[in-house]
Amino acid sequence: MKISHCRLLKKTQSRLLEYFVLEITARSATDILGIQPNSAALFYRKIREVIVHHLEQESHEIFDGVVELDESYFGGIRKGKRGRGAASKVAVFGILKRDGKVYTKVVGDIPEQKH
User: Which H or E run includes 105?
Assistant: First the structure.
């Protein structure tokens, strides 16, 4: 899998990839490069999709032995509820094999828990 249908110049794509690796936010990258914020956010999302694709290709190896499972929530504005019930949060599920690889998966819609 590769990034396709991108109208940004190759030089700009290269710089955005560099900033992604350096953990510079998409918003900061737009200020540095002078491009539209949506363009940088879309390119960052495409980078993440390529990473997910390659991780899924590797995930076919069997997890044997001790593994750890966990979920985390990313994004959103920190107002109101926190954790699972928070609005505009993205849930990520992860598996860690001791002394091995980590597999993560962005989870789609999660039904709200009833208390």
Answer: strand 102-106
Are 97 and 67 in contact by the 8 Å Cβ rule? The answer is yes
Closest by CA position to 43, among listed 75, 72, 77, 2: 2
Element of type H or E holding 18: helix 10-21
Q: Which tens digit of pLDDT belongs to each residue from 9-57?
A: 999 999 999 999 999 999 999 999 999 999 999 999 999 989 888 877 7
Coil/strand/helix, residue 67: strand
* Distance from C-alpha of 3 to C-alpha of 30, rounded to nearest angstrom: 19
E strand or H helix that includes residue 13: helix 10-21
DSSP secondary structure, 77-95, as one string = -SSS--GGG-TT-EEEEEE
